[in-house]
Amino acid sequence: MSFRSLIRPAAAALRQTAASPAAGTLRTYATAAAATSAPTALTPAQAAFLERNKLSFSSPDTLLQALTHKTYTHGKTAYSERLEFLGEKALDMFVSKHVMDKHSDLSADAFRAAVAAYTSPMVLTQVGRSLGVHEAMRWNTNIGKGAENGIVAKITKALIGAIYHDKGAAAAQKFIRSKLIEPTPVNVEALANVIDPKRTLVALLARRQLEAPVTKVLPAVGRHVNAQVTVVGLYLGTRKLGQGAGPTVEVAEIRAARDALAKCFATDLAKPVQPGEVSKLASEEDLTFVEA
User: Fold this and answer.
1) pTM score, whole prediction
2) Where, subcellularly, is it found (predicted)?
3) Mean pLDDT lowest for which of 51-60, 123-132, 184-193?
């Protein structure tokens, strides 16, 4: 499979989402009254956010929409969901290009794992916090402090989408490279060399004194709907570590384990799993996380 065929869907989505009926007009979920109101002044924290990160936008409303979660004023203010979708597509495409350029000999599974390692919610939260997103974003704090990290990750993607929409692809690519790719320590070679992802995952969880995950079969969505595939998620309690799809549960589990390694344990792989850590485990083919 060529790199062009891998990124074509993302590129098409970017073109479709970035296009607007009126040039330079950013469509929002705002009410008509909000859409025609004067630009809103930035708070000192938001102005400092722009200055600290050397960002600029054609209108402060673009930044404010990117920084606004839909829980803020219960969706009555233009919020970030569309920009988040655009940012996610841009992120996937430019990170995929980076990985392909640097590691052109990766298998398809290792390629997906490397991209997932750079674009995981955990990494996006870390990047967002390093930028100060949590200090500038607008959201309903009454939904609970535990939701903050997830919202920071979403707002970070929306910020990328705002840059892509307002400044173009080159500016978004530069931002992704300098703020996300270069500071993120992903050992792509270690990810590519994982032979037994399920056994490796169990060993790394044990290092953190955690139990093995549980497999849950998930509804098929998107490209999987009309295909003969099984989609599974690997869970620790209510936390989903990874997700994978395949013709059988066994194959889907392997891909979900590789996804979990990329998203949650990429840095742990710097210290290789030793034979003693997996000696008591079943073989990769026999090991399963499906509850009896």
Assistant:
1) 0.75
2) Mitochondrion
3) 184-193
Domains and CATH numbers, the chain: 3-181 (1.10.1520.10), 194-278 (3.30.160.20)
The angle at the Cα of 50, spanning 126 to 144, to the nearest 5 degrees, equals: 45
Give me the chain's average pLDDT, please.
87
CA 111, 114, 115, 116 dihedral sign is positive
**Using only C-alpha atoms, what is the Rg of the chain?**
20
Query: Is the pLDDT at 14 greater than 70, yes or no?
Result: no
What pLDDT digit, counting tens, does each position of 29-63 carry? 343 334 445 557 899 999 999 999 999 999 999 99
